[in-house]
Specification:
Helix content of chain A: 55-70%
CATH class of chain A: Mainly Alpha
Largest sheet of chain A: 3 strands, antiparallel
Strand order of the largest sheet of chain A: 1-3-2
CATH architecture of chain A: Orthogonal Bundle
CATH topology of chain A: Arc Repressor Mutant, subunit A
Oligomer: homodimer
Structural class of chain A: mainly alpha
Order of helices and strands of chain A: HHEHHEEH
Largest interface: A-B, 63 and 63 residues
Number of helices of chain A: 5
Distance between the termini of chain A: 48 Å
Chain lengths: ~130, ~130
DNA sequence: CAGAATCCTTAGTGATACTG
DNA sequence: CAGTATCACTAAGGATTCTG
C-alpha cells in the first residue's frame, strides 16, 4: 500500500523509451520545424531552420525520429539526391505537444531568465 | 524574404535556454512527479518515484529547475534535515505540458515500439 | 545534396566515500 | 536525511574529410 497517489516512473516503463527520444534537444526542434511547415523539408532546409545543429547531430535526430515512426524519409533518386522529411500521423501528434512546450518556453523565457538571474545573484552573494 | 512561413530556431532564441532545461530526461520526470502530487515531496521520496536516477543526477536536475524558478526548495533546519520540493506557479504550468508529453508517450508507446521494431527488422534485412 | 566515416574533446553518469 | 566531493568511464557532440 502506497499512501501516495502520485506517479512513479518505473525503469521498465515503456513511456520512458518514448520520452528519451522526445526529451532530446534536437528532436524537439525537428518536430517543431516540421510541424510549422505543412510541406516536406529537405535536409539542408531543415538544417537552416535549426541554427547550431551539426550535420551529424541532425542526421542522428532524424534517424531516431524515423525509427520511432514520427518522421518519414523519402529519397528521390535524382542527381543531386533529394531527400525529404515529413511528419507521420504519429509525428504530427507528438509535434503538437512539443510545439506547445516550445511556445510556452518562448512566452515565458523572460520569467525564467529573471528567476535564473536572481538565483545566480543570490549564489554570488552567498559566496561573498 | 523567406518564402517559407515556418519556424526557425535561432541560436540566441531565448526559448532555447528554457527548452534545454525541459528537454532533459530527469527534469521531465521531476516535473511529472511533482505535478502528480499536490503536496511537497522530500528528496528521497522524489527519488523513489524516479527509478534509476542517481542522487547526483537528481540533485542536479532539481538545482536546474530551482534556478529557473520552476521548483521551490524549502529547508527545514531540523535534525535530521528535511528538504521539501514543490512546484512554483511557473513550474505548475510547465508541468502540465510535460505531463501531457509523458501521457502521450504512455498511450502511444506500443505504436512507437512497433515502428521501431519494423525499422530495426528492415535494417537487419538490408544487411543480409 | 545528403550523408557516412573518422578523430577528438567534453559533458553526462555511476560508484564510492564523506559531512552538517 | 540531504546532500557535496572525487574519480573513472562512457556517450554525446563538434570539426573535418570523403563519397554516391
Amino acid at each position: 500500500m502506497d499512501t501516495n497517489s502520485g506517479i512513479t516512473y518505473a525503469k521498465d516503463c515503456p513511456s520512458r523509451t518514448v520520452l528519451s527520444v522526445l526529451a532530446n534537444k534536437w528532436s524537439l526542434y525537428v518536430l517543431g520545424v516540421l510541424s510549422g511547415n505543412d510541406r516536406p523539408l529537405r535536409f539542408t532546409e531543415l538544417r537552416r531552420h535549426i541554427e547550431g545543429v551539426t550535420q551529424k547531430s541532425l542526421t542522428q535526430a532524424l534517424r531516431n525520429l524515423e525509427r520511432d515512426g514520427l518522421v518519414s524519409r523519402t529519397i528521390h533518386p535524382t542527381i543531386p539526391p533529394r531527400v525529404e522529411y515529413r511528419l507521420t500521423d504519429l509525428g504530427r501528434e507528438a509535434g503538437t505537444l512539443t510545439t506547445a512546450i516550445a511556445d510556452w518556453s518562448k512566452t515565458n523565457a523572460a520569467r525564467v531568465h529573471a528567476a535564473r538571474a536572481a538565483y545566480d545573484a543570490r549564489l554570488a552573494d552567498d559566496r561573498a
